Amino acid sequence: MAPFSLIILISIVLSFLDDGSASQNPYLRHVHRPCKSMVVYFHDIRYNGNNDQNATSRIVGEPEGANKTSLVGVGLTHFGDLIAFDDPLTEDNNLRSPPAGRAQGFYLYDGRNQPASWHGFSMIFNSTKYKGTLTLAGLNVILAKTRDISVVGGTGDFFMHRGIATFSTDAVEDETYFRLRIQIKLYECWKLMNH
Ligand SMILES: *[C@@H]1O[C@H](CO)[C@@H](O)[C@H](O)[C@H]1NC(C)=O
Ligand SMILES: *[C@@H]1O[C@H](CO)[C@@H](O)[C@H](O)[C@H]1NC(C)=O
Ligand SMILES: *[C@@H]1O[C@H](CO)[C@@H](O)[C@H](O)[C@H]1NC(C)=O
Q1: Is 187 touching ligand 1 by the criterion CB < 6 Å?
Q2: What was the pLDDT predicted at 76?
Q3: Which of 22, 93, 131, 161 satisfies CB 3.0 to 4.6 Å to 154 for a cystine?
């Protein structure tokens, strides 16, 4: 068989084996297992007018008629409140454990009929385990048992990483404190080569 027809034969066979997706796009991969995973606890103490010494978040925007010391409205929706935060992250659920990192950014109560908040923030790690940042963005449907938020990128030890952060509410104490358990699973992990 001439080499040319052999090539044609091979490409015909390959086209039958093709599942129609992965081989056309070399960047499209089906991943089942994370390349990195970890759990962190996110502690938020909201300023209420008299806890300045330990508050880690503040209302910075509110709807007409509301104020910056109380979340607006009855119930849990608080529609229109915007909160800025610089919250500690710990490896276990103890607020007083040495922080593994910080979470800095904002959340906006954006559910009119059901409690929901939109989070845009970065986690900053500076421990012996990890140095670098992860940036998260997505909707937190507060009363759902678990909520998946996108991890849209990273720097340092998390160079160009992407994945999913699953939030679950771990504690809600009085009006000012809540704690989230965040399970982070990264499905794309790149390594920066310096040379
Ligand atoms: C923060 O400080 C206030 C006022 O001292 C206190 O009542 C509250 O329990 C503290 N919050 C937490 C989560 O430790
Ligand atoms: C803020 O709003 C809350 C709820 O309406 C109210 O109880 C509180 O007194 C207000 N605080 C200030 C400082 O106006
Ligand atoms: C990280 O920690 C080291 C050692 O504690 C400190 O020197 C450095 O300034 C920290 N970097 C950041 C970005 O916080």
Answers
A1: no
A2: 81
A3: 161
Give residue 22's pLDDT: 47
Ligand nearest to the CA of 49: 2
Q: Using a 6 Å cutoff on CB, does residue 67 contact ligand 1?
A: no
Mean pLDDT by 10 residues, the chain (195 residues): 60 50 63 92 97 97 96 89 98 96 98 96 93 98 97 96 98 94 96 80
Ligand 1 centroid vs 122 CA: distance in angstroms?
A: 25
- Give the pairing of strands 36-45 and 116-126: unpaired
8 A C-beta contact, residue 119 and residue 151:
no
| 101 CB neighbour count, 10 Å cutoff | 23
- Could you list the beta-strand ranges (E) of the chain: 36-45, 57-61, 82-90, 101-109, 116-126, 131-141, 147-156, 162-173, 177-188
Find out whether 144 and 119 touch, Cβ atoms under 8 Å.
Answer: no
pTM given for the model? 0.84
* Beta-bridge mates of residue 80: none
